[in-house]
């Protein structure tokens, strides 16, 4: 039935007058209409429609072929008469030496008109020669001819082959047919040309006939005298008119039939699709022959068991079944259940991003709830701008408000992607507005919302705080800082870029280390869920120690440096109270443990604390490497030692084997061999390979230690892309908008404004947003999820029996 439905769809798609139905949309009142439609009746109806359309197609093909032949015959008669009327008077002995073609002799229009009587008495083609015969040599004739039609593309080759095959002893005339003919087999238009070939002799005639056959040329009978030609032409026109009437009637009838089919096709598609899915599922059921029962072993969410029971009862009532369906919960056993997360329209896109990396194992921690916040926030750190974030938020809000209308429409690839991720775009725009207020940028323009806390004076090239500027040359910071975000004066200052770079670089490290530490904490939840104390004490604990003793300590130094008022009176009075370079402090902690320069001191006993942290990091590495494989090996050895072993005396076994015959020994060996293979398979599943386990643990340890450095450095992309976004915004604003305004030309202002708008939307809103999205995606996949997610392989996703999912899968294919 699906083959017939595809045939009906193809027939409707080929007819431009019939609007194609949407077969992937559930028709209205489907349940009531489908219940009244039996599958056998549908199969008969589809067969009937298929047979009717096949007959219509065959009839239409036959009519099209007949019409093409009549059109070709009409032009052959028309152009052939033109050939004869325009032919020069030739001597009988000179026909074999004529040129291959003469453009002056091509037809220019129909020759059958009001002066037919005059043309009836026109002189013959050859003086005092017998009349021409159509490819025949009757008694007394010297020339014969073929008239027909050949494809226009084959004309040059056809003419050349005729010339070479007859050694120039033929005359060929061509005239293009202005009306393209439709090939019923391919449905494409084919341009053709009418031709006449004049020749003499039976040998040349045979060659010309074979050449015409080789080039698939259609030959037609061309009468000799003008009266017969005119009569044939008129008959051809009459038959052609009658045939056009029949073709139009057939086309209208076929179109009406297709309209009727198109109205019911969505119902038939959905009915067949659902029946096929049901039968496919029924084929996977087990049949109990003793009790004549079908047994289905399925996975179902625990929360949906009541719904399953309700559905079974409803199905029994609809089918009028006498026996109740029994739903029995069975223990899972050693088989791992599939992974199922209950989603909605908001969380689906975030779960899709996580599952693009891999499907979670059963009861493994799902990173999607964390990604709802962390993903748009990390994106906004790189894309922070109030104006750009508002444009993204407004577009996403428009899609969300129109989602019910868009879900019923066929969207393009770009709009479909935006529709699927509409809630993610909404949060990305909202968080970008927040970070834009933090960076104080509105299309690269700073906003003075609370009043700047700095002012410039003539006494100093550097600004001083408006509430702390008694001595301008002292360049003191304001006592009351800007309430939220960056002070707008930093945007135009000479050292503003250094200030922004320092802040964003440190912020990137803080955010990165916090997210990685959270990922390590998620590994603890996984280990606790699977009751793996080895992973808790010998994976989670040393990883936390190593990460916090190195880069966690760096985060503490950053926060501590930010919390100290380096411009306080006490600090100004102390010559050693200088803001340290944290890069130098961290490098000295590893390269020169136990030594700390005075300008790098942030708190008391800093040198001793750094030595302790370095020792803890050094101890954590072998702690991650050695205990886990050794403990697993000890457990395996203890389990193997306590396992059951057969107690058989070797002498008795040898005596037993020697007393049995060869056949009995073979049978016994075969039976024991079969049992041994089953036991061997079970032992093979539980076999412990210490070397493989140790190498894997060594790889994980090295990967974590090196990854702690590389992943922390990878988070600096937050700083780099935020800087690139801000600098591009500044360049577009200054070079396009400000320069055009400074020029004073209204034309340049308009051009500069539209160029600024175009580059802002094209480069910043599309290219920059895509770049920030991909970098945020990489940070979640590589730097965050690899700490705890899919460490033991990917799980199996729970796929419920759902008609909508089946329909969407068919749409994707």
TrEMBL record:
Positions of transmembrane segments: 377-401, 422-439, 507-527, 539-560, 609-626, 746-767
UniProt-recorded name of the protein: V-type proton ATPase subunit a
Role description: Essential component of the vacuolar proton pump (V-ATPase), a multimeric enzyme that catalyzes the translocation of protons across the membranes. Required for assembly and activity of the V-ATPase.
A Pfam family per the record: V_ATPase_I
Compartmental location: Membrane
Topology in the lipid bilayer: Multi-pass membrane protein
Coiled coil, from the record: 32-59
Example GO biological process: vacuolar acidification
GO molecular function: ATPase binding; proton-transporting ATPase activity, rotational mechanism
Stretches for region Disordered: 656-683
Family: Belongs to the V-ATPase 116 kDa subunit family.
GO cellular component: vacuolar proton-transporting V-type ATPase, V0 domain
Keywords recorded for this protein, A-Z: Coiled coil, Hydrogen ion transport, Ion transport, Membrane, Transmembrane, Transmembrane helix, Transport
